[in-house]
Specification:
With 208 residues, the protein is an alpha/beta fold. The protein folds into 2 domains: 34 residues, no CATH class; 168 residues, Rossmann fold (3-Layer(aba) Sandwich), CATH 3.40.50. Helix content is 40%, strand content 23%. It has 10 helices and 7 strands. It has a 7-stranded mixed β-sheet, with helices on both faces. α9 links the parallel β4 and β5. The chain starts with a helix and ends with a strand.
């Protein structure tokens, strides 16, 4: 943006741009939360403790496709890519173009595939990228605040897209997601991570 364009830009927009530049990825995450609080669910990204505990059960040597819903600014993307085999792929799905554009600009790994779309369409998205199924699906979407019918649709589509032995990994502030998961996953492990803002519940739904 040129200097004259900046001068014509509304004052609040200029302030937001400056704050975003100062905060880096935190600024982008914060802007996404302010614009779409129902879809983001948290004002700051997950802690490293949540990331480590959430990903611990994953058998990385058996993982060829890892899918994430609501990647935000890539808090989980980079740790997943560090663990993913060289022939693996990470597809991330988000309805917010702000996050997708940011991820495209900051993650250059050839295994990384950012998609602007809905998690409810995961089956079509996975097939469009040449896969029959996913090995693991991770979600931090706020199931308790999603529009009516969206949470159950996502849980059902996720169960269908997973291979037998795969898992749906979910971290939440409430137990609503577990209710949706229980309709499809007969085995659900759960835990709690206190070192997160806010402390969160962790669920692993296994497709036996």
């Amino acid at each position: 943006m040129t200097t004259p364009e900046l001068a014509r830009e509304p004052f609040p927009a200029r302030i937001r741009r400056r704050i975003k530049r100062m905060l880096g990825p935190w600024g982008v995450f914060l802007q996404g939360f302010i614009e779409h609080p129902v879809m983001v669910g948290s004002i700051i990204p997950s802690s490293r403790f949540t990331i480590q505990r959430m990903l611990k059960p994953v058998k990385w040597d058996e993982c060829r496709l890892f899918v994430e819903y609501g990647p935000g600014v890539g808090t989980f993307c980079r740790p997943v890519l560090q663990r993913l085999p060289r022939d693996g792929r990470l597809i991330v799905i988000d309805t917010n173009p702000l996050y997708i554009d940011y991820l495209k600009a900051t993650i250059t790994d050839s295994r990384f595939i950012p998609v602007l779309g809905s998690a409810a369409d995961v089956e079509e998205i996975v097939r469009a990228h040449g896969f029959d199924h996913a090995d693991y699906v991770l979600s931090g979407l706020p199931f308790s605040t999603l529009p009516d019918g969206v949470g159950p649709a996502i849980a059902a589509a996720t169960h269908r897209v997973l291979r037998p032995g795969g898992a749906f990994l979910v971290y939440q502030f409430s137990a609503r997601a577990r209710d949706y998961m229980a309709r499809h996953f007969t085995r659900i492990d759960q835990d709690f991570e206190p070192l997160n803002v806010l402390p969160c519940k962790l669920f692993w739904g296994w497709k036996d």
